[in-house]
Amino acid sequence: MNRHSSHGETTSFHALVLGGGGPVGASWMATLVNGLVSAGVPLPEADVVLGTSAGAVVGSWLTMSPENLAAVPGHMRERAARHAGTAQAGQGDKALLRRMAAAHGNDPRAIGRAALAAIPPISAEQAEGLWKSALPDGPWPDRLGIFAVDTDTGTARQWTAQDGIPLPVAVACSTAAPGAAPPVAVGDSVWVDGGVRSGTNADLLVGDGPGRVLIMAPIPSPNLAREEAILTERGHSVRVIVSDSFITKPSDALDPNFIDTAIAAGTKQTADLAAKLAQWWQS
After folding, report:
1. I want to staple 5 with a disulfide (CB 3.0 to 4.6 A). Which of 54, 211, 232, 258 is the partner?
2. Does 2 score more than 80 pLDDT?
């Protein structure tokens, strides 16, 4: 599904906001983005690409190696299998993510503390080793921002190339889903999944507006309508694409059995949306 809102006619920049959704959501987004690019939507030319959790992975591939986006679901299949293995070994618990959300609601700080209690944090060096092989090689693009949440304050931070940490470390921070992946210690703080604050963190977009903003959300967030309204009020023209409802609970996003379903959904939505999005993005 997609929807749009707009305010004003003049746009000066293009932004792509990619939300969280685990390996399954990343597979859907990568398939959708790759299909849209192949259909003539020049998403690799976006001035700003913001990624939260799964979106950090897809954003990295889009900005650094867009010709290889089709390889992302394969990497995510391996990642999902690893999540399943650590859960079976008692090092993570997918059901814990559901319990945390129910117990702490929308309190990122409380969820961060619970995440620390569930799985011990790892170092930046360990985090880099976990993600380096699943990301493209090369320098971190200046236009790519990646969100993670500080477990001490509960606030989100946008990591960029200017922060001086390796890209795989930032991706590890952004994808550290409570109860499923270890928090990451960077500097004086410990970081967890950027989705703890918001599924997309779209309201944190800063740009030389008004602009065109395309949001992709593998998992519909309660904050999504509010964030769309905020961007529209700032004068942006906004489109939101939400996945077909193949992710019905948080653990589905980590389940390798849903990867093929995600690919099929992304392929179908590409066919449904490509022409209209191409016209909007380039108008």
Report:
1. 232
2. no
